[in-house]
Amino acid sequence: MNHFQYKGTELFAENVAVKDIVAKVGSPVYIYSHATLERHFKAFDNAFNGVAHTICYSVKANSTQSVLKTFINLGGGVDIVSGGELYRALKAGVDPHKVVYSGVGKKNDEIEYALNTGILMFNVESEQELTRISEIASRMGKKAGIAIRVNPDVDPGTHPYITTGLKNAKFGITIDRAMEEYKRAATLPGIEVIGIDMHIGSQLTKVTPFVDSIEKLKIMIGKLKDLGINLQYFDCGGGLGIQYNEEEPPLPADYGKEIVAATKDLGMHLVFEPGRNIVGNAGILTATTLFTKERDDKNFIMIDAGMNDLARPALYGSFHGVQPVVKDQDGMIVADIVGPICESGDFLVKDREVPMFKQGDLMAFMSAGAYGFAMSSSYNSRPRVAEVMVKGEKFEVIREREKVEDLVRGETVASFL
Ligand code: LLP
């Protein structure tokens, strides 16, 4: 359930007509519903009522500060993968003790920054990273809380580009090496072993791969206990999918029931890193029809948003529903909806029956809250678009549309030219 619904023929974001937002802010624009963000965060959080847990929202899905602040206000922490994400989250007011730091390529200055901040834990993804964190922490006279990200070798059944928990993926330490690394970690001077972590992939539509992975990790947790290494935190990662088209992902409550059942004997503090599940359906991207082109065998609708604004269809062949902002089209047409970028991969919709948009018509790409703006770029020197948050009858610009001057900020023409 989200708060983008029609009232009569007009699409609304909560109580604001989308066309009024575009009239004021321009096109294209990302629009987020605050009520939907809250609702989805709470649904995830409530799925673990009665169990010690922290929801560490995965900043990469949508790192805009107003989005982060919405979750921080509800008691959320964050999962970060860079110093930049840490900076954003701190600016938005996150409690450092609710920050977990994942990622296969942490740089020295990022590790130092996280240690100075006093984050809860590093999710360590390689043997060398473990050694490096210990060295840096020791030099700083600190101890770094760590979990090992264990790669459980379980197939999440999702797109290959977002599958992370199979043995051939670059992520985590394989399960056959993880025991040894835990033993080594326990002897390192700059390390405090506090948890275990997994993240097996994104847009999962079944709970079974999560539970299978947890079962594998549980065996390790038991063996570590026998060695006197007691872990407090079990970070189950993110990855719970959403409905874009005809998928039927489990509800957070159902996911929660199974995860709680699988982990309850452990008595550990659970950590979750949801991204898409909370923000995906809380955002839309609106665009304007510039031109249409009808050929004998193919129709194109050219719009003012492209793969630089919403990369998912070009990158993964992802489906995003498209709806008119005002329903006044004369029927349907099979067409590609394409952007202005000079690449044939620049499509948002491919060979699909869509309303017969005409010049000037506005359309909304649904479920664009996750990995939408966050993955956008200024390719083809297109300024990145504005972002708006709606709450009830109110809306505010939470990120200004970039200007052409922003495109050359920091650039210098070499003095020898
Ligand atoms: N934790 C870690 C360590 C991750 O790598 C990710 C996502 C998450 C949590 C959050 O996963 P989520 O709950 O959002 O599924 N750009 C792709 C998705 C990439 C996911 C990367 N990692 C897309 O647009 O589908």
Automatic annotation (TrEMBL):
Subunit structure: Homodimer.
Top-level division of the source organism's lineage: Bacteria
Pathway(s): Amino-acid biosynthesis; L-lysine biosynthesis via DAP pathway; L-lysine from DL-2,6-diaminopimelate: step 1/1
Keyword annotations of the record: Amino-acid biosynthesis, Decarboxylase, Lyase, Lysine biosynthesis, Pyridoxal phosphate
Catalyzed chemical reaction(s): meso-2,6-diaminopimelate + H(+) = L-lysine + CO2
Stored Pfam families: Orn_Arg_deC_N (PF02784)
Residues bound to substrate: R276, R312, Y316, E343, Y371
Role noted for this protein: Specifically catalyzes the decarboxylation of meso-diaminopimelate (meso-DAP) to L-lysine.
GO molecular function annotations of the record: diaminopimelate decarboxylase activity
Modified residues (N6-(pyridoxal phosphate)lysine): K60
Enzyme class label: lyase
PANTHER family assigned to the protein according to its UniProt record, in alphabetical order: DIAMINOPIMELATE DECARBOXYLASE (PTHR43727), GROUP IV DECARBOXYLASE (PTHR43727:SF2)
Residue span, Orn/DAP/Arg decarboxylase 2 N-terminal domain: 35-279
Protein family according to the UniProt entry: Belongs to the Orn/Lys/Arg decarboxylase class-II family. LysA subfamily.
Name the record gives this protein: Diaminopimelate decarboxylase
Flavoprotein in keyword set: no
EC numbers on record: 4.1.1.20
Binding residues annotated for pyridoxal 5'-phosphate, in chain numbering: G239, E273, P274, G275, R276, Y371
Cofactors required: pyridoxal 5'-phosphate
SUPFAM superfamilies, alphabetized: Alanine racemase C-terminal domain-like, PLP-binding barrel
InterPro entries in alphabetical order: Ala_racemase/Decarboxylase_C, DAP_deCOOHase_LysA, De-COase2_CS, De-COase2_N, Orn/DAP/Arg_de-COase, PLP-binding_barrel
Organism from which the protein derives: Pelotalea chapellei
